[in-house]
Each structure stands twice: as structure tokens, then as C-alpha cells.
Amino acid sequence: MPNMKVNIQQELSEKKITQRSIARMLGVKPSSVHNVITLKRSTPRIRQAIALALGKTVEEIFPGK
């Protein structure tokens, strides 16, 4: 799954979106967003925010979650 992590981070970077900006929008720590991207945690609200920021569905970003 490390490839998925790289893809998410690359897509965020291409759209000039930071993990910190997603965290700020949700009122959570940037480490919480990082933990979802690296699949250490599975928080539906953060997964949804990442998908929304990338213009994709949660299933497209996090298949099987």
C-alpha cells in the first residue's frame, strides 16, 4: 500500500493542497491527516475531506475502506 500513499501525496501536491490545510479545515492535527494517508488510521471524516479535496470519491482514494 505504500504506492497509494505516494499517489495521494502526489495528487495533493499537484493541486497545491497540504495535509496541514486539510487538518485546519477539519480542526484536527496534521498528524491525524497523515495517519489516514499512510493507512495507520481510518477516520471516515478525514478520508472524506481528502477525497473531496482531490475531487474523487472515498472509494477511489481508499479502495475497500
Number of domains: 1
Distance between the termini: 13 Å
Q: Biggest sheet: strands, sense, closure?
A: none
Quickly count the helices. 5
Write the layout of secondary structure elements.
Layout: H1 2-14, H2 19-26, H3 30-37, H4 44-54, H5 58-61
Helix pairs in contact: 2-3
In short:
Helix content is 68%, strand content 0%.
Describe the protein's architecture and organization.
The protein has 65 residues and is mostly helical. The chain has a single domain, classed as lambda repressor-like DNA-binding domains (434 Repressor (Amino-terminal Domain), Orthogonal Bundle). It has helices at 2-14, 19-26, 30-37, 44-54, 58-61. Helix 2 packs across helix 3. The longest helix is centred in the first third of the chain and has 13 residues, at 2-14. It is globular and about 25 Å long. The two termini are 13 Å apart.
Keywords:
434 Repressor (Amino-terminal Domain)
